[in-house]
Amino acid sequence: MSDLQNRNMNIQWFPGHMTKTRRYIEKNIGLVDIVAETVDARCIRASQNPDFDRLLASKPRLMIITKTDLADPDITSRWLNSFSKQGRQCVCVALNTGRGVKEVLPAIRSVLAPKLESYAAKGMKKTIRMMICGVPNSGKSTLINSLCGRRAALAQDRPGVTRGGQWVTLSSDIELLDTPGILWNKFEDMQSGLHLAFTGAVKDDVVDIETLALELIRTLNTKYPSALGLRYGIDTASYSEPLEIYEAVCRRRGFILRGGELDYERCAKIMLDEFRAGKLGRISLEAPYA
Ligand SMILES: Nc1nc2c(ncn2[C@@H]2O[C@H](COP(=O)(O)OP(=O)(O)OP(=O)(O)O)[C@@H](O)[C@H]2O)c(=O)[nH]1
Ligand SMILES: [Mg+2]
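Above are the sequence and the magnesium ion SMILES. Below is the predicted complex in structure-token form.
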């Protein structure tokens, strides 16, 4: 039996370069007309940066909910209802297929309608400048590439890919500013930190991956009780503890070291990769409160 149950989940997730990005955003916010904030559909609450209300206060905002292909569609609709009641503008996208992308430009124009109309009334053409901000790995650079129809910004399946601001011209009247993903100094509760780590917004090398996998099992077993059983061919209901499920997955997948010990690390990596890739089903970790 592993000591896993007794380990603490301690996420040191705020590297120095994020302070640099925060300053970059503060310095460049005056240059843009609008900010698009990307949030991950699987954890819409946890992936909204609480610092943005202050950092981005001077500009209109558009929320772009990314990765909707990986999220539970019912929960995504509940979020949309909740935002619509609050009068918050948002667009849902699945950037792997391009779904929803064509709604982004009309939404930008709608948010900026008063400004664009006042320019038009004076016979002037307005170049729209939009900054894209959000937690790491939430699809900022991929959104830019989808809008442009070319690989203008570097995008990869890990957090911390974009390392500095980058302007990309979309058309004669729209310019986009890609920014590196940022988190905040202190997360409000452990759960938000876990959700960001499960979905790949926090680098795996700053967390204990085995504890993270155990927490993922605990969370899925509560919210989507059949997901692990279906994927790994085990009867999760016959186990009382998440660690027992973890060990059953290790055995089932043959993750066993030479001396017969279970290879918890290998199993953790596989489970997290498969969860992130949607192989455990379309899963949302957070529903709106109302
Ligand atoms: N399935 C799916 N994958 C997506 C979606 N959006 C982005 N991705 C993937 O998520 C990964 C991260 O995308 P990026 O665009 O690099 O994310 P980012 O926000 O720019 O990340 P940083 O620059 O590290 O802050 C890439 O592998 C994308 O292909 C989506 O809507 N659905
Ligand atoms: Mg990026």
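The two ends are 41 Å apart (CA to CA).
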